[in-house]
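Final report, Chapter 2: Outcomes

The project's central promise was a pipeline that accepts a single protein chain and returns its three-dimensional structure in a standardized token representation, suitable for archiving and comparison. That pipeline is now operational. To close this chapter, we reproduce one record exactly as it appears in the project archive, with the input sequence first and the structure output second.
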Amino acid sequence: MGGAAQLRKLLATGDFIAAPGAYDAFSARIIENVGFPAVYLGGNAIGLHLGVGQPFVTLTETVLCIRNTLASIDAPLIVDAGAGFGEPAHVWRTVREIERAGAAALHIDDQPYPKRAGYHAGRGGLASVESAAAKLKVACEARRDRDFMIIARTDALRVTKSLDEAAARCRVYFEAGAEAIMVLDLPPEQVGPLKAMIPDVPLIWFVSPATPALPTSVLKSAGFRMAFYPFNTIAAVADAVTHLWTSLRDNGSLDQDPRRVGTLRNSVQDLIGMKTYWDIEARDSEPGKH
């Protein structure tokens, strides 16, 4: 079963779906191994993994990251397609390339394109509702597999502070073909009023610095169907690596339990499937095999 069909099957159960954010094949493998049924690949995570900011990530780099990530996992991968990498004609190719790479779903936001560096300094903006809806409509037309999910993301609540404005955009995006919607910075207490305005639209929680991660029980009770965690994995890695090497720089020694390192080395070998290769080599080196 392909990733898109897997994601549809997960959603059909009615269970709340938490999709932690990966930034490469290794982090995605860890997330899947922990037991999560889906993985999220955010644009900012891709950018930071490449050592650049999200506004400068290209479609080619995104597709390559998708392919590398999916080579290491079987779980469905949900991908941040930003503002679609251009106008509606560009969105057509964006969808085709991301779907061909094996993703289960993508989301397109209503930020202006090209994305500006100032977005991550709190200077976000909104594209017109008409242009955002046109991109979503083309995205739905471009997909080959009807199971491939098109998700809309709106920054309207963050930018305008108006729930009515966010709801109005959600309605337009849903009518354009989006099958689920993320309203950036939507607090759980506003889900009820929003769903009253757009009752048929599944909502997705998106963890951002402005909205710290809440317990999944709270999100489910509020009415969210899924949650994406774009930055948390990157934050954990940055924190752990900084602490590790700051200790060596300042104290001349590593603040790291060598026994734990040894245990992790073995578990990491298991994680990436090295036993398969060891078994092949062992079998190939047996007497009489050549």
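Archive annotation: The beta strands are 17-22, 39-41, 77-80, 105-109, 149-154, 180-183, 203-206, 226-229.
This record, like all others produced under the grant, will remain available to the consortium after the project formally closes.
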